[in-house]
Design brief:
248 residues; alpha/beta; 8-stranded mixed β-sheet; 9 helices; 40% helix
Length: 248
C-alpha cells in the first residue's frame, strides 16, 4: 500500500487517538498476555511502534514490521531502541520459523487476502508459536441516537469503505482454516462517553448523503456530549491460537 505523506500523517494522528481511548491500553495488555511466553515476537503493521516498545519493556525481543517508510521513521524517532523493519503482512522481514509470537492489531480489515497473510504467519512462526489478532467488526459500532435509521446507514456506509469490514468476526474460522489450533476468542468493548467520541462521530457524519440530516445528526451528538450523554461502543475481537508443536 502506497500512501501520500499527508495520509500517513493523518493515520498516525488517528492511531495516536485510538491508543488514548478508554480501554485501549488494557486491550493491548490482553494481547501481550495472550502471546504467553512467546519470544521473539513480530508486531505486524506496527504503526507508531508503541506495542514494540511495550513488549520490549516486558523483556521480549520484539520486531515491528510496517510497509510505510514514513510510519517506520516515526516509530524509530519515538522508540530509538526498537527494532523496526520494512515489510507487510504478505512479506515479513524474517526468515522461516524465526518468531515465536505474531501480533496483528487493526490490520486484517485492510487485507484483501487474509489467508495469504496467515500463510506468511505460519512461515515465520516456529512450532508451538502463538498468534494474536485484534480488530473491530466495522458493522457493529453501537451509538445511542435519536435517529437509529440514519445511524445504521452511516455505520454501514463507513463499513463499506473498508477492504474487509467483517474480518474480525471471521478470525476464528480463518485461523482454523490456516491450520492453527487451540483457537481462543474474546470480545472487549471500547466504551466512549466523552469528547473522545466526537472524532468517531464526525467521521461517520461525513458519509451522509444529505448534508442537512448529517448536520442535524451531528448537532444531536454534540449536544449529548455537552450534557455527558454521548455513548459509543466499539466491540473489539481478540483471537489467539497456536502452531502445532510438531509440524506435519
Amino acid at each position: 500500500m502506497t500512501r501520500t505523506p499527508e495520509k500517513t500523517d493523518r493515520l498516525i494522528a488517528l492511531l495516536d487517538g485510538v491508543e488514548r481511548m478508554p480501554g485501549a491500553r488494557e486491550l493491548r495488555l490482553l494481547s501481550y498476555d495472550l502471546l504467553g511466553a512467546a519470544d521473539p515476537v513480530v508486531d505486524v503493521g506496527c504503526g507508531g511502534g508503541r506495542a514494540v516498545a511495550e513488549l520490549t519493556e516486558r523483556g521480549v525481543a520484539a520486531v515491528g514490521a510496517d510497509p510505510d517508510e514514513r510510519m517506520l521513521a516515526v516509530a524509530r524517532t519515538r522508540w530509538p531502541e526498537g527494532d523496526f523493519r520494512a515489510g507487510d503482512a504478505y512479506r515479513l522481514p524474517l526468515p522461516d520459523h524465526a518468531a515465536h509470537g505474531y501480533r496483528a492489531d487493526k490490520v486484517f480489515h485492510v487485507l484483501a487476502e487474509p489467508q495469504r497473510a496467515l500463510a506468511e504467519a505460519r512461515r515465520v512462526l516456529a512450532p508451538g508459536g502463538r498468534i494474536v489478532l485484534v480488530g473491530q467488526d466495522w458493522d457493529t459500532i453501537v451509538i445511542d441516537t435519536d435517529d437509529p435509521a440514519l445511524t445504521r446507514a452511516l455505520v454501514h456506509a463507513r463499513a463499506d469503505r473498508v477492504t474487509a469490514p467483517r474480518a474480525a468476526r471471521a478470525h476464528r474460522n480463518l485461523l482454523l482454516d490456516a491450520g492453527f489450533e487451540d483457537v481462543h476468542i474474546e470480545i472487549r468493548t471500547l466504551v466512549l462517553t466523552g469528547p473522545e467520541a466526537l472524532p468517531v462521530l464526525t467521521d461517520l457524519a461525513a458519509l451522509a448523503d444529505d448534508e442537512g440530516r448529517a448536520a442535524g445528526w451531528m448537532a444531536e451528538q454534540r449536544a449529548r456530549a455537552e450534557r455527558d450523554r454521548v455513548f459509543v461502543a466499539v466491540p473489539m475481537f481478540v483471537a489467539a491460537a497456536s502452531v502445532r508443536s510438531t509440524r506435519a
